[in-house]
Design brief:
CATH class of the largest domain: Mainly Beta
Helix content: under 10%
CATH topology of the largest domain: Neuraminidase
Distance between the termini: 25 Å
CATH superfamily of the largest domain: TolB, C-terminal domain
Largest sheet: 8 strands, mixed
Number of helices: 1
Radius of gyration: 27 Å
């Protein structure tokens, strides 16, 4: 997993999508050893350029925290005479003063956090034998008192009414809790966060939500929970360790990703609190991250209403096993597959036996890989297209692949013989391709708005029909019905996403149109037929996922979730779920019966262009614009 994750962020940095404009992003302050000993550096949120604030040669500073007014910094500092203790200085690094009282026994201070009025600093002190306590010191150094034992990693709420912290049970179990500033009124929010180290929670700027890391079967992931209690919502699905979250803006988080503590690979990432727009932060240019290197962000504080964070709540605490309780469907990342060629992935298809999938690349290659449920083994890379491969398909047994490309050709590949069997030249760039379940028919769609039914062996056209005006759209998707008695075509125009969209049902024998959807909704960029053949799902460029009746074309559902163009769709778990992806950098799992979003999956650091599900619906492969693939497991 280490090499995969390390490679993942190398690609994020080199080939990720262009960063979004930064809007009102706070000042980032981060410890760095780039000058020798650990100093505190201000980081430009747009360029990653830095300025050394503390400039000390023999002392090491960690755990910075901005005062509420942004005029002071609290931090921990190790000197020649003491272990890490809490200090306060002005924002320019001047007027340093130690405020924590040095105890008689060996210990170390960490995680300072300011009260809302800027007069106090809470922090954690650790002793040998994994013993912790939370203390509160006056910002002028006049007092330093214990407020809670068996507790660590405090985080003061924006309104100053509560402190979130990690509770240490005698059994070794760690939980997330809140308390009053004097250490009373403890309420447990999450009973068990697993074996997570360096788990520092962070309040949202409005004080309504707390983000924290918790242990899962595939690493430490970030979760959000209401400050008053409730069911946590999983935010990240990145293999490895995700921790040290801080808020960049009112709705955007910065956090650290690495493989294992102290090992190379990883980066600083940012994402929106709704799970979208995962991307690399410019701070990643500084140096590899480490669990102890936690940044802080200054955001001007607005007036925050008091909340019941430390008061009794009727909501019972969540247990670790309940973190995905709002859905009986569990989704787990299984494999990350690095980019093998420059450019984007344009298409993905799975064979009917579920053992192979094919990928079409912008560079003109067709890749075929084998999947055994846990790992992916490359089978072959076919090269021949002189432009992007916009569409791929595989026969049921995975022995033959089909591709349609921007070079106006439709190609047939023998996977076993590792070569091309047939090449047909068309009058327009190919945009879509599908093979019937019995392998007897091949359907293609092109930039001229034409659907063609072909002989799979030769590529010769047996029937064709014009389904959309080439000036108003292209055939971007084709899919066969369950018994191959109908072909569905999706029409879209990429540059005008909100117009000219339609789904057309075509008789593959005669080319006659059986029905056509009406309206001017966004173009249909991808199609998938349900396992029972009764429904057709579409990913639309107006960001909606739609479902139609396969016999009549009647719209059965129109689901809003993606915050940008939806570009891929598939059915999972025997038709119980619909899976989609989009340019908001997410994969989404929908309840097929209700249209409810069950999961928003954040793993890709770029727009997600395609998804494809295995025939049994238990695995999903998603393709990012940066050339990365993620294979997911779906279970009930």
């Amino acid at each position: 997993m280490g090499s995969i994750c390390a490679g993942l962020f190398a690609v994020f940095l080199a080939a990720g999508s262009p960063p979004e404009p930064t809007v009102n992003e706070g000042q980032v302050l981060v410890p760095s050893a780039r000058s020798g000993a650990l100093d505190l550096f201000l980081v430009d949120p747009e360029t990653g350029n830095t300025k050394n604030v503390t400039r000390t040669e023999r002392e090491e500073e960690l755990s910075p925290a901005w005062s509420p007014d942004g005029k002071q910094i609290a931090f921990t500092c190790k000197t020649a005479g003491t272990a890490f203790e809490v200090y306060v200085c002005d924002a320019d690094g001047s007027n340093r003063k130690r405020i924590s009282a040095v105890p008689e026994h060996p210990s170390g201070a960490t995680a300072p956090t300011w009260s809302a009025d800027g007069k106090k600093v809470a922090y954690a002190r650790g002793y040998p034998g994994n013993t912790y306590e939370v203390r509160v010191a006056a910002a002028d150094g006049s007092t330093d008192e214990v407020i809670r034992e068996d507790a660590s990693m405090p985080a003061w709420s924006p309104n100053g009414k509560a402190i979130a912290f990690i509770q240490h049970a005698a059994t070794g179990q760690r939980g997330l809790a809140v308390m009053a500033p004097d250490g009373t009124g403890v309420k447990v929010l999450v009973e068990d966060i697993g074996k997570v180290e360096f788990c520092l929670p962070a309040w949202s700027p409005d004080g309504k939500t707390i983000v924290y890391p918790a242990d899962t079967g595939y690493g430490w992931q970030l979760f959000l929970i209401p400050a008053t209690g409730g069911t946590p919502r999983q935010l990240t699905y990145l293999l490895g360790l995700n921790f040290n979250p801080v808020w960049l803006t009112a709705d955007r988080l910065l956090f650290t990703h690495t493989v294992q503590p102290g090992t190379p690979g990883g980066g600083y990432l940012s994402m929106k609190a709704d799970g979208t727009r995962l991307q690399t932060h410019p701070m990643s240019k500084m140096e590899p991250p480490h669990p102890l290197i936690r940044p802080t962000v200054f955001l001007p504080r607005a007036e925050i209403a008091a909340h019941a964070g430390a008061e009794t709540s009727p909501v019972r605490p969540a247990a670790h096993t309940e973190m995905a309780a709002r859905s009986s469907v569990r989704v787990t990342p299984v494999v990350l597959i690095p980019s093998t060629a420059p450019g984007s992935i344009f298409s993905v298809a799975w064979s009917e036996d579920g053992k192979r999938f094919a990928v079409g690349l912008e560079s003109g290659s067709v890749l075929v890989g084998e999947f055994d449920g846990k790992t992916v083994r490359p089978v072959e890379a076919f090269r021949g297209h002189e432009g992007a491969v916009d569409a791929v398909a595989l026969t049921a047994d995975g022995t033959t692949a089909y591709s349609a490309g921007a070079d106006r050709t439709v190609r047939t590949w023998d996977v076993g013989l590792k070569g091309s069997k047939a090449i047909r030249t068309d009058s327009a760039p190919g945009r879509a391709v599908a093979i019937s379940g019995d392998g007897k028919l091949l359907a293609t769609g092109d930039a001229n708005g034409v659907v063609k039914i072909r002989d799979p062996e030769t590529g010769v056209v047996a029937a064709e029909t014009q389904v959309c005006d080439p000036k108003r759209g292209e055939v971007r998707a084709v899919a066969f019905g369950k018994e191959s008695e109908v072909v569905f075509a999706g029409c879209a125009r990429w540059d005008i996403a909100v117009l000219n969209g339609a789904v057309v049902a075509v008789d593959p024998t005669t080319g006659k149109q059986l029905w056509r959807t009406k309206g001017t909704f966004g173009g249909v960029f991808a199609l998938a037929v349900s396992p029972d053949g009764a429904k057709v799902a579409g990913a639309c460029l107006d960001s909606y996922v739609r479902v139609w009746d396969a016999k009549t074309g009647a719209e059965l559902g129109c689901w809003k979730g993606h915050t940008d163009r939806a570009t891929g769709v598939a059915w999972g778990l025997g038709g119980k779920t619909v899976l989609s992806c989009g340019f908001d950098h997410t994969v989404r799992v929908w309840d097929a019966a209700t249209g409810t979003v069950l999961h928003t999956l954040a793993t890709h650091g770029s727009p997600v262009v395609r998804v494809a599900a295995s025939p049994d619906g238990k695995h999903l492969v998603s393709a990012g614009q940066d050339g990365w693939l993620v294979v997911w497991s779906l279970t009930e």
